[in-house]
Amino acid sequence: MLSTQFWVPLVLAADELPVVRGTPNEWLAVVIVGVLLLVALVTFSYTTKAGIIARATTKEAVRQPVFLLCMAIAIVIQLINTVLPFFSLGEDVKMLKDCSLATILISGLLIAVWTASTSVAEEIEGKTAMTLLSKPINRRQFVLGKYIGILQAVLFYMAPIIVVFLACVYYKVGYDAKESSKELPESAVRMAEVVQVLPGLVLLFMEIAVLSAISVAISTRLPMVVNLTTCFSIFVIGHLAGLLVQVGKERLEFVHFMAKLIATALPGLEIFNISAAVATGDIVPPIYLGYSALYCGCYCTAVILFAFILFEDRDLA
Asked: Is residue 178 classed as helix, strand or coil in its secondary structure?
């Protein structure tokens, strides 16, 4: 999809995130761009034909039992981790952040892939898609609407979990100080820990967006079981892509070539990982968020265009 020269530097940078926190103007620009994207998403959902499909997909996803079940499990896990000792020698807050981010990511991916399979693959197999496409809606609008609807469902899913997560981080700072018989930290100290994970939540959503696009493309041709298995494999390999390229340089030329081929075709998901920043207490800078968003947008666009090709000649009868 995209050349390794574009994203490999980001993967390497993910292990050594800069300490630069960004100026207030840079963060203001990030907030403005985020608000504009949300406005564009809402406008798309209510002013286009594909938006009608997006809204229906979101409603269908929210009503699924697995949606509420995953949300409840994710919230319970975070609450348990808040009072559960990690025996990490004073690093329990960082452990809570890592575990909670991983919980939100895995459960969010499950919702995205599950929704893609039920709303795309099953509708195609059940001939429901043929009924929709008999109306003045073409196949490209169908695929795009499904993808946007999945992203909206993920946003609805993540919103309450993120609120609980941030509240747990805020509480955990004081809870650990109390357990260690230390002076209770001020609100500013607690808020600093909360603010530190906010960029990570944005990167986490970008990773889900990339894998959701892949899941939608797969769902146009393959059933749920294959979709789940393939997305899980891509998730694992995508996080190892940068390492494969680096290790390949020390091996045979063929191994290096295959590593670069895999890294080029599959997404470099490690650029969305902020575990290094959490471990060092740094805030991911705005420039890193910008490059990651650019990569996410380009990759998602390429995958959705590929989904158009896969679905264009799919027999729905």
From this structure: helix
Q: Phi/psi class of residue 20: alpha, beta or left (left: φ > 0; alpha: ψ in -120 to 50)?
A: beta
User: Is residue 224, in this structure, part of any structural domain at all?
Assistant: yes
**Chain centre distance of CA 273:** 10
The dihedral of CA 190, 196, 201, 204: what is its sign? Answer: negative
Cβ density class 266-303: b for 16+ within 10 Å, e for less: bbbbbbbbbbebbeeebbbbbebbebbbebbeebbeeb
Length of the chain: 317
Residue 70 exposed, middle or buried by CB count within 10 Å (0-12, 13-18, 19+)? buried
Whole-Å CA distances, 8 to 81, 148, 238:
33, 28, 12
Give me the half-sphere count of Cα atoms (radius 13 Å) on the Cβ side of residue 212: 33
- Three-state DSSP class for residue 36: helix
Terminal Cα-to-Cα distance of the chain (whole angstroms): 32
Answer yes or no: is pLDDT of 304 > 90.
yes
> In this structure, is residue 317 part of a structural domain?
no
Measured CA to CA, the distance from residue 228 to residue 230 in angstroms comes to 6
Position 159 in a domain:
yes
pTM: 0.85
In a domain, 112, yes or no: yes
In tens, the pLDDT along 56-96 reads: 889 988 988 889 999 999 999 999 988 887 776 667 888 88
Beta carbons of 109 and 231 less than 8 angstroms apart? yes
Number of C-beta neighbours around residue 160 at 10 A: 12
Nearest Cα to Cα of residue 270 among 291, 296, 242, 301: 242
The parent domain of residue 217 ranges over: 4-312
Report the alpha-carbon distance of residue 76 to residue 90 in Å, rounded. 23
Query: How many domains does the chain fold into?
Result: 1
